[in-house]
Specification:
Blueprint (H helix, E strand, L loop, with lengths): L2 E11 L2 E7 L5 E4 L6 H9 L23 E10 L2 E10 L5 E4 L2 E2 L2 H7 L2 E4 L11 H15 L3 H20 L5 H34 L8 E6 L9 H10 L1 H7 L10 E6 L4 E2 L5 H23 L4 E4 L8 H14 L3 E5 L13 E4 L11
Parallel strand pairs: 3-13, 3-14, 8-12, 12-13
Antiparallel strand pairs: 1-2, 1-4, 4-5, 5-6, 6-7, 9-10, 10-11
Helix pairs in contact: 3-5, 4-5, 5-6, 5-8
Amino acid sequence: MTLAVTSLSLSHFRSHRHSRLACDSRPIAIYGANGAGKTNILEAVSLFSPGRGIRRASAQDMTRRPEALGWKVSGTLAAAETVHEVETWSDKGAARQVKLNGKAAPQTRLGELCRVIWLIPAMDRLWIEGAEGRRRFLDRTALSFFPDHAEAALTYEKTMRERNRLLKDQIRDGHWYKALEDQMAGAAEKLHANRTRTLTFLRDAQAQAETAFPVAELDLQHPDEATPVTAEEFRAAFADSRPRDLQAGRTLVGPHRADLFGTYAAKGVPAADCSTGEQKALLISLILANARALAMQIGAPPILLLDEVAAHLDAGRRAALYDEITALSAQAWMTGTDKALFETLETRAQFLTVSDSGGLSEVR
């Protein structure tokens, strides 16, 4: 089974006034000068999945400036031996909308059809930034396995905000909290279960493959001594923590406090203490493990978006990365400033040049 975007059209999207391209399921190497709009193409492809794309941008921020007329991304998606027409757009100042095969659809439907994972330069600080960034990375990975993960996260965040408002207002009546905590507990159980299963998938995928990239041992950590697992345990933890939460004015227990801890397995060194190159290699290892695990689970590798990934690797590691991508039979959209960065791909890939004006050459 293949999973690939086989045509793409951008209208007033970021730097692209009007751009169209057709492609097959092979990797796509996109090269051109900095600022030419290469990453914008990857961002457009990322919108074939739910959410705010690789930049986590609002719909309004994706429109071409200075016109700010709104934008549209459309294309064909080959998934499960069926071709789907995908359209997503935002009219001026409006929220993002989606159509599948000419009919309005929720974004969650995209997650059922298409799995997209990405690696962008902003993620290079994963191991040394705050816990929030690592939770976001883990949740995005979990979403690739469990399309309903986003709904659980939204339910939890929305309900926690309402609980935090009560805490800040120093409301002490337990009846106000109970209904909110019941909703939070159910969502918390699902979040924790999805994250835990995701780490299991990644560990198994790393263990079953020989790769040129180092293995990262992963652990989900919580600041609390006892980590709740079931909805009932989370419900009790929220209730028990109310006095402490009232003092702090916010919720101090729950899955929003979790952190992803990584270790360079071969060296036994925390990822945060590794060199910049080692941290990048560990991150690539996780992306590849995610892709392998998805291929085993759904019968097809996800679409990969790898922004400027080649520039951070030596020639040997670049060649190894391309070999692993082609062995997976994954459609990988990759960017770089020079075609030479992709030379070892040769006929295994398509090549696309982006000019400074945002124009695209024909894919070869």
